[in-house]
Design goal:
This protein is of the alpha/beta class. It is built from 22 helices and 16 strands. The chain is 38% helix and 16% strand. The structure holds zinc ion. The site of zinc ion has 8 residues, from loops.
């Protein structure tokens, strides 16, 4: 007899339905799993057999063939343990056929307990979209899977509890709809950073318009301190964005963590990171490439400290994602596209010794130029704001505890107001930093005075066409923060000052 149990698999961050069929035939007792199982799936037989024994089932004394369909897609991971066991027990007549309106997945321990798997939310969503009524998930995946609305999500602690539920002896209660997580007592706040008002202003502009930022300043000037607080002034995650973030983190088995975190992701990979650690690609044999840091930073912030220390090839892999908001990775095991829409904050010392521009610099002019050349031009092209960070002023330190610094909440309120203006003007998902060139003229009207100033500055600073557009986008955000429909000369002047590296390189 052939039994059939529905399950789900994961490709990238997308789930798909897998049909698990089991057929018992005569011949020497053995277990064959077909349908391109790799790695952990090929080993599932041992776990399944032990779990069946632990729950006092008789293993069928016959040849057992399990097929995972579609048979032409590689199956990886441990999620198929549960459906394989259910299919075998049903084929052997040990249990009734599992309901056909339900999707099952989960890793089995040798004692029959259910362990969490990667991609639970995406697989639950795939089950819902395919019209299933219920999805049974490992209890430890419940918090993330509960975000799949429109399908009943049953958290299952172990095999016995599931079988009792299926036979009607004891009912498992479905997950309740998740409550949006509340921000933890805001640990990182801009009010903790004394002084540095110019940099805070630049970060406010970056948050308001979605611009990428490069902070350049001597060691100890507080670049990382400021960058780490950047998420606290970004708009809170929307429901749709939160779903995307959980699906991404779920693909690497960290969906639970993402499901209870209120803040946007913040990733700060070390400058010794490899290209595959940053952009994705590492994976176990036979498995699709795993997402990298830029995908974990999706809908959040990617902070690259010591930018010139990163290997050039590593930085080159950022070009496509910065342009398209996604990254495509090809490996022997297959090709996969992951989302990677993040805001980049990069930081660097202005020269090798770190003190260029302060009077303490010991570098030659040639070595300063050499240092700046390490930055890849195409990468710099995608950074709208270049901000010179000055060493902390003594006055600011002396005023610590006396003067009130503005809190992240106050800054965020202005950011949200500016985002709202962009939303009204450009529609959702198109912040100023992403305005395509054809739309710039329509959305960035300059006053006559600003227009004349721009013409003069263009020649004086030797701006390229790309730089021209970047200045215009930043000026648009500055004007939005001032709630001004027209870009005034003062807005443009502020935007022009965020080209400090161009000036340093031209000096
Ligand atoms: Zn120096």
């Amino acid at each position: 007899m052939v039994s059939r149990v529905f399950s789900a698999g994961l490709h990238g961050i997308d789930g798909y339905i897998v049909t698990t069929e089991c057929f018992l035939s005569g011949g020497l007792p053995r277990l064959d799993v077909v349908g391109l199982p790799t790695g952990a799936v090929a080993e599932s037989g041992e776990r399944v057999r032990a779990a069946a024994k632990a729950c006092s089932f008789d293993w069928p004394v016959s040849r057992v063939t399990v097929n995972l369909a579609p048979a032409d897609t590689k199956k990886a991971g441990t999620a198929y343990d549960l459906p394989i066991l259910l299919a075998i027990l049903a084929a052997a007549g040990e249990i009734n056929a599992p309901p056909q309106d339900t999707v099952f997945f989960g890793e089995l321990s040798l004692t029959g307990a259910l362990r969490p798997v990667c991609g639970a939310l995406s697989m639950a969503i795939a089950a819902r979209d395919a019209g299933f009524h219920t999805v049974c998930v490992p209890a430890q995946n419940a918090a993330e899977a509960a975000y799949a609305t429109g399908i009943s999500v049953l958290p299952v602690p172990d095999l016995n509890a599931l079988l009792n539920h299926l036979s009607g002896r004891a009912t498992l209660p479905p997950c309740e709809a998740p409550q949006p997580p509340q921000p933890a007592e805001q640990a990182l706040d801009f009010s903790h950073v004394m002084g540095q008002h110019a940099v805070k202003r630049a970060l406010e502009i970056a948050a308001a318009g979605g611009h990428n930022v490069l902070l350049s300043g001597p060691p100890g000037s507080g670049k990382s301190m400021l960058a780490k607080r950047f998420s606290s002034i970004l708009p809170p995650l929307s429901d749709a964005e939160r779903l995307e973030v959980i699906r991404v983190w779920s693909a690497v088995g960290r969906g639970q963590e993402a499901a209870v975190r209120a803040e946007r992701p913040f990733r700060a990979p070390h400058h010794s990171s490899s290209a595959s650690a940053l952009s994705g690609g590492a994976g176990t044999a036979g498995r699709l490439p795993l997402p990298g840091e830029i995908t974990l930073a999706h809908r959040g912030v990617l902070f690259l400290d010591e930018l010139p220390e990163f290997h050039r090839d590593v930085l080159e892999t950022l070009r496509q994602p910065l342009e398209d908001g996604q990254v495509t990775i090809s490996r022997v095991a297959g090709q996969v596209t992951y989302p990677a829409s993040f805001q980049l904050i990069a930081a660097m010392n202005p020269c090798k010794c770190g003190w260029y521009g302060t009077g303490r610099c010991t570098c030659s002019k040639a070595s300063v130029q050499q240092y700046l050349k390490r930055l890849s031009g195409p990468l710099l092209d995608r950074i709208d704001l270049q901000v010179a960070v000055q060493p902390v002023e003594y006055a600011a330190l002396a005023a610590r505890g006396k003067a009130e610094e503005e809190s992240s909440a106050e800054i965020r309120a202005r950011v949200l107001a500016a985002r709202d203006i962009q939303y009204q003007r450009q529609g959702a998902d198109l912040c100023n930093a992403l305005l395509p060139p054809p739309q710039l003229a329509a959305h960035c009207p300059l006053t006559e005075q600003a227009s004349a100033m721009f013409a003069a500055a263009f020649d004086r600073l030797g701006l390229t066409a790309r730089a021209h557009d970047r200045v215009l986008r930043v000026a648009r955000t500055v004007a939005d923060l001032a709630a001004s429909p027209l870009i005034q000369a003062e807005h443009l002047a502020e935007a022009l000052q965020y080209r400090s590296l161009d000036r340093a390189a031209a000096d």
